[in-house]
Amino acid sequence: MSEQVKSPVSLGLLAHVDAGKTTLSEGLLYLAGARRSVGRVDHGDALLDHHELERARGITIFSKQALLQTRRLDLTLVDTPGHVDFAAEAERTMPILDCAVLLISATDGIQAHTMTLWKLLEKYQVPTLLFINKMDLPGPGEEALMAQLQRELSAGCVNFSRPEELEESCALCDEALLESYLAGGSVTAENIRQLIAQRRLFPCCFGSALRLEGVSEFLQVLDTYLPVPVRSNDFGARVFKISRDPQGSRLTWLKITGGSLMPRSVIPGLEQKAHQLRRYSGDKFTTLERALPGMLCAATGLTDTYAGQGLGAESSSEPPTLESVLSYRVTGDLEPVKLLPLLRLLEEEDPQLKIVWDEGLKQIHLRLMGSVQLEVLRSLMLQRFGVTLQFAEPRILYKETIENTVEGVGHFEPLRHYAEAHILLEPLPPGGGLVFDTVCSTDVLEAGYQSMILAHMAEKTHRGVLTGSPITDMKLTLLVGKAHLKHTEGGDFRQATYRAIRQGLMQARSVLLEPWYAFVLTLPTAQIGRAITDVRAMGGQFDAPKTLGELSELRGSLPASELGDYPQELAAFTQGKGRLQLTLDGYRPCHNTQAVVESIGYDPEADLENTPDSVFCAHGAGFTVKWHQVREYMHLESGRREDKPRLLTGNLNPEDKTLEAILKREFGEVRTQLYRPAPVADPADRITIRPPKQQYLIVDGYNMVFAWQELRTLAREDIDAARRRLQDLLSSYAAFKKYTVVLVFDGERRKDSPGEKTVEGPLRVVYTAEGETADAYIQAMAAQVGKSYTLRVASSDGLVQLSSLGSGVLRVSARELEQEVLEAQEQMRKYY
Ligand SMILES: Nc1nc2c(ncn2[C@@H]2O[C@H](COP(=O)(O)OP(=O)(O)OP(=O)(O)O)[C@@H](O)[C@H]2O)c(=O)[nH]1
Ligand SMILES: [Mg+2]
Q: Residue 386 — left, alpha, or beta (φ > 0 → left; ψ -120 to 50 → alpha)?
């Protein structure tokens, strides 16, 4: 038989827990000849559940892949975890799926989590097939299930287990196709592939994965009808996971979306080379000499990649929708100084953990979806690092939004610094998230500064003023801003932006938001009255209950903070017959705002890291102006069109005040029209931005050695020692701040310079090659890295104008960096 070139396609398996995803994967692998025997999750020998914890628990925890060949396709199955605690792990795979199989367990029908996954598949626009599993067990039967799928998911669900009616049912999904079919034409496999690709047709197959019934038919359907996306010739890839192999090598998991990738060649968008490209099936891999579009591979040797990152033609993806609403305080049998970096390693692998150091309380907090994830994390820490973790009572993660539109003003002008920003804060509907925009004309503030301000809006979690919780459901728009020709330095607009947002929040009417769960409660009909009373007591809402024989079902929603240990209570009073499914239903105004605000006791003006105040300059010295007086000092007029013209008085100098008094006495009240409408920006000038990028800092080593007091003194004695000291300082700084720092030394100054590069965690040290200056190296690197990262450069003033490197690059002076490093040291000292 001639070797046919098959198309690589990635196919995800998604469903609620225990629906049979792993069992189906094993069945498909066996029938396609990729495995000699069928692995069984119940026997702990499934190819895909190979992690110790998975075998022990019988559930999938980490998403994994396996390869199989069909006649037409080179398929990569991506098995995902179904437990809601690992839903974010499943969601992270969605941007890299060409197609998905959504499993439905015939005994359970459509579960709350099935709906969550269905909506996510729609959000990520993944063509989807359905496999209705466990048909060997008693259940409602094929017809009733098909009706439920068509009613609750989509009318495009078509039963592919019934070949007789297939053409007609598929034709019904498309008007033109129906017309041609009714006129006697036929529906081709290509027609069907197109409808699936457009998400207008969702093939449904029935079977039993465990008994291998309907599985080879399903494989046939996949082989015939799975659409293959058109791939571009330009290189593009998405990072979907970071993990470590048993030897501890860091793996960056990539899906190649266009072009191809070879090991040991520079990856566009990163300035690094992969040592190896591995193609995994289960826990085994082969190495690739070339990764083709559609393939998933794990690259070794890359240091600062992150899940969600886009490379080459791909842009970075938005953060996942599913997030935890509970934060746990964590301690271990290790001092925080040692515990934190270990937790950070796990956070890199599961970014949803979101480890937070609470400076006020001197505690480590992390986000968990629930108790199963908590137990898994505990086992992982023990297994990998021999550390035992303890978790304290979870806290609800509140958010804040605003009710009215305000203009926030921030001004930052200590001596020889300058920046002012006016930012409009507008409420968005629930679920709107944070949106950033600018309407500032480039005549008022050049585009480079504007994109900096937008990056500063996006780069950090801005805290509300009621409880210090993150803000959401708001649009932040840059109205106007001002820079100084000489004195605006990197960092000034960061200060002005942060302060403007907080100043705006202080003026606005804030609203506290709390997470709500949607629930489906099933329990014996006799006990439905008790359940209704309980849900009412928790402040929940519900629809009329439905009776399904001996059981009744109650659907509704309730505040997460009130749930407590209700699942256990339910199990107790129903003798284990009651079942409560919960899915996050977004944030709503808090039902007990006052009590929460009082118990948190947050004072926004005392939160110095998030100050709403501004700094102005007079007689060569900076002074603080309280947030409620900023408008009297600000240098720019209000950027809001709807602001009433107002009399400018606050920032007149004393002579002007006297003059004003005279004029007033002589001529009556003067109304100077100082208001100017905000210039309307050309829509082409609008800047759109991506989610926060990783921070990257390039440092000109010798420049720092000669500018920092401590290093200069050291260098007089021993230049090598000064270099090492700088390396140490930056290494801990980088680790603490979670920045990637590249320290560049001019190789010219070291006679023996090999042009070498060394890596120490997040710090990389580079000696430039002979004949290459540090400036030239930095410039080249900035041009490359600046596109994909938030980039700052600490270098000599002699370095070419950084503005020529692109608008995203910020310059930090040696003095500023020294200040930052000292501050970080101070924080670390307090912290540890
Ligand atoms: N009777 C029956 N049992 C099945 C079938 N498919 C899977 N099972 C059983 O259902 C249980 C869960 O199967 P898994 O394949 O681990 O389910 P999963 O969807 O991968 O579960 P998670 O990965 O934990 O979300 C196991 O005990 C399987 O043996 C089936 O078709 N019929
Ligand atoms: Mg599984």
A: left
Q: CA–CA distance from 553 to each of 152, 521, 522 (Å)?
A: 17, 6, 4
Angle at 665 between CA 663 and CA 670, to 5 degrees: 50
CB 828 within 8 Å of CB 732: yes
Pocket lining: 350 vs ligand 1, CB cutoff 6 Å: no
CA distances (Å), origin 375, targets 87, 335, 372, 434? 16, 21, 5, 33
96, 29 contact by CB (below 8 A): no
Closest-lying ligand 1 atom to the alpha carbon of residue 25:
15
CA-nearest residue, atom 5 of ligand 1? 210
Q: Whose CA is nearest to atom 8 of ligand 1?
A: 20
The radius of gyration of the chain's CA atoms, rounded to the nearest angstrom, is 30
- What whole-number distance in Å separates Cα of residue 442 and Cα of residue 422? 15
Question: Could you give the 3-state DSSP secondary structure of residue 636?
Answer: coil
pLDDT at 666: 46
| pLDDT of residue 645 exceeding 50 | no
Structure tokens at 609: 């890291």
d(CA 89, CA 250): 18
Polymer length of the chain: 832
DSSP codes of every residue in 772-828: --HHHHHHHHHHHHTTTSEEEEE--TTS--GGGG-TTEEEE-HHHHHHHHHHHHHHH
Q: What are the two backbone dihedrals, phi and then psi, of residue 193, each rounded to the nearest 5 degrees?
A: -60, -40
SS3 549: coil
Pocket of ligand 1 contains residue 59 by CB under 6 Å: yes
The H or E element containing residue 73 is strand 73-79
pLDDT one-digit tens code per residue, 230-259: 999 999 999 999 999 989 899 999 999 999
Q: How far is Cα 204 from Cα 156, in angstroms, rounded to an integer?
A: 10
The closest alpha carbon to 759, from 240, 250, 239, belongs to: 250
Token pair 């009710």 in the structure block, residue: 403
Adjacency order of strands within the sheet including 310-312: 284-287, 277-281, 296-300, 250-258, 236-244, 310-312
CB 136 within 8 A of CB 209: no
377 in Cβ contact with 368 (< 8 Å): yes
The ligand that comes nearest to the alpha carbon of residue 50 is 2
Beta strands in 526-600 (DSSP E): 541-542, 546-548, 551-559, 579-589
- For residue 32, what are its two tokens? 């396609």
CB atoms within 10 A of CB 492: 25
Report residues near ion ligand 2: CB below 5 Å.
21-22, 60
Using pLDDT thresholds of 50, 70 and 90, give the confidence band for residue 418: very high
Strand partners, 130: 102, 204
Computed over every residue of the chain, the mean pLDDT equals 85
> What pLDDT sits at residue 670?
38
pLDDT in tens, 495-530: 999 999 999 999 999 999 999 998 999 999 999 999
Q: Give 86's DSSP letter.
A: G
**C-alpha to C-alpha distances, 35 to 21, 32, 47, 222, 762, nearest whole angstrom:** 17, 8, 9, 18, 41
Question: 89: Cβ below 6 Å to ligand 1?
Answer: no
Cβ(83) – ligand 1 distance below 6 Å: yes
